[in-house]
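User: I'm preparing a small set of examples for a lab meeting where we compare how different chains pack in three dimensions. I only have the primary sequence for this one, and I'd like the structure in token form so I can line it up with the others. Please keep the answer compact; I'll paste it straight into my notes.
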Amino acid sequence: MPGPPIHPVRRTIRYWFVRLTMALLVRAWVRVRLEGREHLPPGPAVYCFNHLSWADPFVLMSILPFRPRLYFFGPKEEDMTAGGRNRLMAWAGTALPYKPGKNDLLDATRRVSAVLAAGGVVAIAGEGRIGVRETDMQPLSEGPAFFALRSHVPLVPIAVNGTSWLAFGRRIRVRVGEPVPADGRPDRATLAATTEALRSTLLGMLADAPTVPEPGRAGRWLTELFNDWPEGSREAAAAAASAAVAAGAAPASTAASPADPT
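Assistant: Understood. Below is the structure token output for the 262-residue chain.
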């Protein structure tokens, strides 16, 4: 199982401590609302959520049920001791880190399968990067569909809104949708169809998200504290997204799929 090699009881204590701490800290800073809780399966599943901020995993940790045990696929790190966020997730045993290479993705697939076989749930930021628009998404990788199809578990869309800018007292909505059908073998056609159905469902769930105003200096600092923009900055990412929309095509995804490692 993920995390350091420690006694299972100590691992459980760490997990519950971190989940409780995140629930207290996040709810002390923002107002989080969970919609569609009835759509969450009682057993193993793959959750796919849109990604607007480094804070998204911690928001989900604060609001989703404590059982089944929650794990996150990622981050793409070779050294989980680098950075406070990574050290915290590694200490809690909630991260399934991977390096975007063929061999490690195969190992990551085995780790995900082990978590699901043990009754846990795996949450994946399917875009593989942070986006700039509350109502839009980058293309999804086929990873979430692949894991769900391979392990024969539900594929659950989760829409997060309100985290593109972080500020005290802001409202954040976490909306859970009905599981997307994920039946059959994880071949090319099934993966493509399932991924497209998942993205369409998430876009529909995001469509009514309100615009989030830019906060003051402290809020801007907190928002960008751990954000990683492939284009170099939020402004450059927004310009690239606008150019892609104007050209009538979505920007290419940077996330690799376990079914097609690159």
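A couple of notes for your slides: The longest helix spans residues 8-29. The two ends are 25 Å apart (CA to CA).

User: Perfect, thanks.
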